[in-house]
Amino acid sequence: MPLSVGVIGTGWVGASVAISVLHAGFASELLLADMRHELAEGEAMDLSHGAPFYTTAGVRAVDVDAMLDTDAVVIAAGRGGKPGESRLDLLRDNADTIRKLAEQFRGYRGLFVVVTNPVDVLTYVAAKSSDLPCERIIGTGTMLDTARLRQVLGHSLRVDPHSVHAQVVGEHGDSEVVLWSSAHVGGTPLREWAGWSPDREAPIATEVRTAAYEIIKRKGATNHAIGLCTAAVLRSVLRDQHQVLTVSRVHPALNGVALSLPTVVGAGGATTVLEPEMSADEKAALNKSAEVLDAAYKSISG
Ligand SMILES: NC(=O)c1ccc[n+]([C@@H]2O[C@H](COP(=O)([O-])OP(=O)(O)OC[C@H]3O[C@@H](n4cnc5c(N)ncnc54)[C@H](O)[C@@H]3O)[C@@H](O)[C@H]2O)c1
User: Fold this and answer.
1) What angle do CA 236, 261, 242 make, to 5 degrees?
2) Are strands 137-139 and 111-114 parallel, antiparallel or unpaired?
3) Whose CA is nearest to atom 39 of ligand 1?
4) Residues 20 and 228 sit within 8 Å (Cβ to Cβ)
5) How far apart are the C-alpha atoms of 226 and 1, rounded to whole Å?
6) In 3-state terms, what secondary structure has residue 232?
7) Fewest CB within 10 angstroms: 84, 213, 254, 300, which?
8) Average pLDDT over the chain, rounded to whole?
9) If you measure from the C-alpha of residue 293 to the centroid of ligand 1, how many angstroms do you get, rounded to a whole number?
């Protein structure tokens, strides 16, 4: 079945999302839009020239209106973080951009994926402004943090990250929570792994939490890993894979806050939210994260 994907915002992140989607091979049509139309055109031309190396897909630069009939649309529009700036500092500028874009997608039949930061608050803004069911508005949330955690743990234990089952939940940002108590490596609880000691946990959590700042300091943006995460969300939806991913969505049971929990992602969107095992400290930290996000949203909705 031909599937079409739109990407709005073709800066660092949008361009990486685009190439990851093409490599993943599930889209037959990739539409790109940017307020700097020439940038989207340039990316479309450049990506088209790689056609002999990926599964056939047409790539075109279009206006946002031309994306209203796509199967999924990714929002990577807005500005990126600056050195020393927290993700919540981006809030006001990017909320305005997402609100206006989401309003254009009222009645949309596809899946809406938010990448722009602060991604959790903007997932909430998109859900509210588009009026779409909350399972069809997915933020990439802590998927990137979870990927970073699995990579760092795999590297430090000398195990392939695919065999590391560990998750980051809550806010994609400073209040995020690593679920150490349920982390497993090949079926063995991490805390029972030979040579593991709890004093390794805080430095790894800090490394994961501050990874973006370290990358931005060096190259000005983060883009490749988030491009791969976004393509994984799209593939799970468009191929109805039912992967469990730590994506962000609005949680009616959590006062309507959008944050990440392990969630089954398939054709219906981010549907079944799992309740992972958590220690009392982790539960308290997750509640704190929800409060931080609620306050962030309230700071712009007054
Ligand atoms: N969720 C995550 O894990 C994650 C990871 C990395 C980056 N990000 C976020 O992704 C966003 C994009 O980052 P970037 O580095 O690509 O920034 P960028 O500045 O390189 O690109 C953003 C693009 O959006 C375009 N744009 C702005 N407003 C627009 C609008 N209304 N319509 C169409 N296009 C518009 C700009 O012209 C620009 O090309 C940032 O908010 C960044 O913080 C999120």
Assistant:
1) 20
2) parallel
3) 11
4) yes
5) 26
6) helix
7) 84
8) 95
9) 20
Question: How many angstroms separate the CA atoms of 152 and 256, rounded?
Answer: 32
Structure tokens at 215: 């990358």
- Cβ burial 35-58 (10 Å sphere, 16+ → b, else e): eeeebbbbbbeebeeeeeebeebe
How much is the pLDDT for 263?
A: 98
Q: Is the pLDDT of residue 223 over 70?
A: yes
- For helices 201-209 and 211-219, give the axis angle rounded to 10 degrees: 40
pLDDT at position 229 over 90: yes
Type of residue at 261: L
Given 49, 172, 184, 251, the catalytic residue: 172
Question: Tens digit of pLDDT for each residue in 23-49?
Answer: 999 999 999 999 999 999 999 999 999
What is the residue whose two structure tokens read 């993700």? 87
DSSP conformational letter for 274: P
Return the ∠ at Cα 29 (arms to 24 and 35), rounded to 5°: 105
Which pLDDT value is given to residue 88? 64
CA gap 90, 122 in Å, rounded: 10
- Beta bridge mates, 164: 185
Could you tell me which of 273, 6, 258 has the C-alpha nearest to residue 122? 258
Q: Which of 79, 85, 96 to mutate to test the pocket of ligand 1 (most atoms within 8 A of CB)?
A: 79
Q: Give the Cα separation of 150 and 168 in Å (integer).
A: 10
Residues with CB under 6 A from ligand 1: 8-14, 33-36, 39, 76-81, 90, 94, 97, 115-117, 119, 140, 144, 172, 221-222, 226
The three-class DSSP label of residue 61 is strand
- Report whether 243 contacts 232 (CB < 8 A): yes
Angle, helices 37-48/12-24, rounded to nearest 10 degrees: 30
172 is catalytic: yes
**How many Cβ atoms from other residues are within 10 Å of residue 205's Cβ?**
18
- Separation CA 176–CA 195 (nearest Å): 26
